[in-house]
């Protein structure tokens, strides 16, 4: 075996290059440069891939803790969730620091550059450790209060779901005002702490290299100049919103015999936030009988809980030939609280929902929207980056979600699911369908604008006084939504988890407009369908967009596959034009028509009773046949008291409210989530639990933070893989198949 010395090899290579044409030298040099660049790209690619694997593990761990908390809310589950979030944030900071060893300027692959940016600018997790703890602890305590039963005044032991029921069913204005005010007053003590939490958005902006709050939220939403754009689009939508608002106020003023004004109290619209008016859709429609029959048919068809989601999955089958995977059905909980919570577990498109069973119009639309998000994550599983899931908000995901909601209210789908009677006049069906979507979409858009613009202005103006902050909140709500507090000035924003978590509504606003553009693309117009909601085959470009929807900036994806260059309100305005024309023609001639809903309440009670009825099993012995009935679940004195049945005898002014709650008895006692059975009589139990972890005291261990150490194994694998690639590329590019052997001096190289 011949061994070449270093000197010999050097001399040999010198002879080669001296006799080599300049063209070949140029080619070889460029091959070397290309090889080095490829190696650097491969190194970055390996590193980011390993980073994503670690992200999945940490994200899943945090999701599991959140799932445990929302389904079994307590100080213990809250503390575990906070610990996981703090660990997750520390991990993100470590990944950012490791990325500092890689120069972004050397990355040629656009997808790698995008992932680099998302990992480098990881959002609120980059806050100072103590600031981040303050943020998540405040958000967690606020959520725990929202998930807990009320223990004050006449709402003793009422859950959020119970209060929402009263607001949507009671015909007494004073009762509505009372329960709405009482619920928000239980959250009011958190306002002082919120004045500390809200400015953290500005701190997070600086940590992520953004110049201000606006650009920071645009960064998280992947939407450059997003607020400038949506303000322009809102200016086009505002007139339509005002017409629907005026029509709604006119109807409500006639129903409740109150003076007509340009604005109305938020509690009249059937929910705590007042940003979804479908709760009182029967009162705000030109054809209340048709709307009422829809509400009734939802109960008749028993579209409750899982069966409702199964029906929604039927739409995803017809539209995209996709259904939620088995794990979704097995691990979701369909008999909890509303509004629903959809948790992304960051692996293999795995999501779960925790929701209530009630088939209200609002919950029906929410179910379809949730299924839309599940399908989006499943379809994009091969391309979606967990970095997007963890550090960004996707308007594309929101767009598909809202598209499902739009289609769910179409006459075609309402007929297909036998929720709308097809005997109704086509024009009436059209107006009712459009009104359902309008009452769900338009108030939400106005709320998104009010919530984000209020926070941006409050931060920019340095508002820190609680009273001034609340006053500013209602000023913005009145400007954008046309709603007022009727003089109570309660901090309703504390009932919103987006606001208490410092999350932007920008992607939801953009996603809603995008949904109508999707509708226009699929239907080739914005015309409402009566026979079929889809064509025989969905456009392949739409499918490709969903398959690649999580791999890059969503604006680039919709541009590439659907040629939607910008978010626009034109499709939305075109969609609602028949409704707008109809309302314009009505003018002042319309008279409110009252609909008695007592038979619907009776139907609700009967169906709930059927669900609560004990199962019957038949035992067939050899000689005799005996039918035995399993003992019913304990619906005891405590349960009835929790639902207001016993306490209606008390002279505390709760008669009307108790009757309303009793007519909608839950499938399980109110207190089942919050108070153990053996302590149902101890009305101070929950109050004690709630005060165990005050906002100003962290429930976590005060010892030094246990930040994850730099992942050395990741670095070893990345360097090893890159080193191997370097050896192979350079060997092929420079030496080819030449062997190290003695070379005749007179040999020439060409």
Describe this structure in words.
With 750 residues, the protein is mainly alpha-helical. Helices cover 59% and strands 3% of the residues. It is built from 30 helices and six strands. The protein has helices at 6-18, 22-71, 75-99, 110-120, 129-147, 160-169, 173-187, 191-197, 200-207, 213-220, 226-256, 288-300, 306-320, 326-331, 361-379, 386-391, 395-408, 411-416, 426-461, 466-481, 497-500, 506-523, 540-547, 554-562, 570-586, 598-612, 637-642, 655-662, 685-692, 712-735, and strands at residues 264-265, 341-344, 351-354, 483-484, 616-619, 626-629. The strands form three sheets. A two-stranded parallel ribbon has the order 1-4. Helix 15 crosses helix 17. The radius of gyration is 30 Å and the shape is globular. Residues 1-17, 618-713 and 730-750 have low confidence and may be disordered.
By DSSP (H or I, 4+ residues per run), the number of helices equals: 30
Query: Which parts are unreliable, with pLDDT below 50 for 5 consecutive residues or more?
Result: 1-17, 618-713, 730-750
Spatial arrangement of strands, main beta sheet: 1-4
> What is the count of β-strands?
6
**Rg (C-alpha, Å):** 30 Å
Shape: globular
Mean of pLDDT:
80
Span of the ends, CA to CA: 27 Å
| Biggest sheet details | 2 strands, parallel
Question: Helix share of residues?
Answer: 55-70%
Class by helix and strand content?
mainly alpha
Strand content: under 5%
